[in-house]
Amino acid sequence: MTSPASKIELLRLTQAEWSERLDSPDRARAMARWIFSDEARALAHDDAPDSAAPDSITSTTPLSLSLPASIPAVSHRVLDRWRESLDFHVPRCRSRQRSSDGTIKYALAVGSGANIESVLIPARGRSTLCVSSQVGCTRHCAFCATARLGFRRNLRAEEIVGQFWRARHDAPQSSPLRNIVFMGMGEPLDNLDEVLRAIAILTQQPEPQLSARNITVSTSGVLPGMVRLLSESRVNLALSLNATTDETRRHLMPQTAQWPIGALLDLLRHDAQTNPGRDVFIEMVLFDSVNDSEDDARRLIDLLQGVNARVNLIAHNAFDGSPFRPTTSERLQRFKDIVLNAGIRCLTRVPRGQEIAAACGQLALRHA
Ligand code: SF4
To answer: Is 146 in the pocket of ligand 1 (CB under 6 A)?
Structure first.
């Protein structure tokens, strides 16, 4: 009898690992097709109704699903051999809140009493899922609601993939879920082994077959992790810069102050030479009278010389207890005009799901 501690989670294995265990690449592909099929999805039926998010989260155990008697191309004999050593746990959906703009925020129980959030953002032609990589966060950015939760633990790869497994069927048919952004709870680069494993599973053939070019990892600027991610993966990178001087950055993001802005941007310049196809985003959350002046915009232009990146401007999404005020629309537009006039691509990110606290920097299990 295999001990529970040595059991393997279905959502954790790559195709190469399945192939080795099932002694056949064909069986491995069949297993992947089944795991991400409607049939497997139908086994998970404990979702809270859309319209009735519970007032409190009481249960924290993930949902355990049973393997079927057979899977096409995987025989009874092979499945029976493995049945006792496999576990199929998916995050239990504790609440699903829908915003008037179509955004859906999930509160998910992932085991050991831990809850996380992820956000499905439908748009024309495609949907994006914002996933969490940690329970809480290792960093303590001064403007972020998640930081108030402290850090509890890293998520395992199967818990990251499980967020996709849960949400993909909620995407409108006309806007399938094809994009993943690691911008939920947590600093992904502080959990890089598991994040890279999750990316390997999400991009594998035949399922779920996402493109690495449709996956973006966002970081608060953890330089060693950035070096590794850029060398080991072809996914896109979003650097949450938020300041044009190291002093202001230290104030906003004290936990990443050991890596100066110059060193972060030098790495991006170097990567642009070796991986010209990668999309890089510079995220600037703008706070009233902190980092939204015309001087800030001009300093940003100087800093980004030789960096092939698009700037995303986001007005701070305020939450109860935030020490900052969002920039005004006039100051944001002026900032954007200055950056655009310098020939740098620059967009204003429209917040989604604000009324359900699902926008950037607002994930804090508010209903938990
Ligand atoms: S902004 Fe990101 S890295 Fe900073 S505390 Fe929030 S979740 Fe963590």
So the answer is: yes
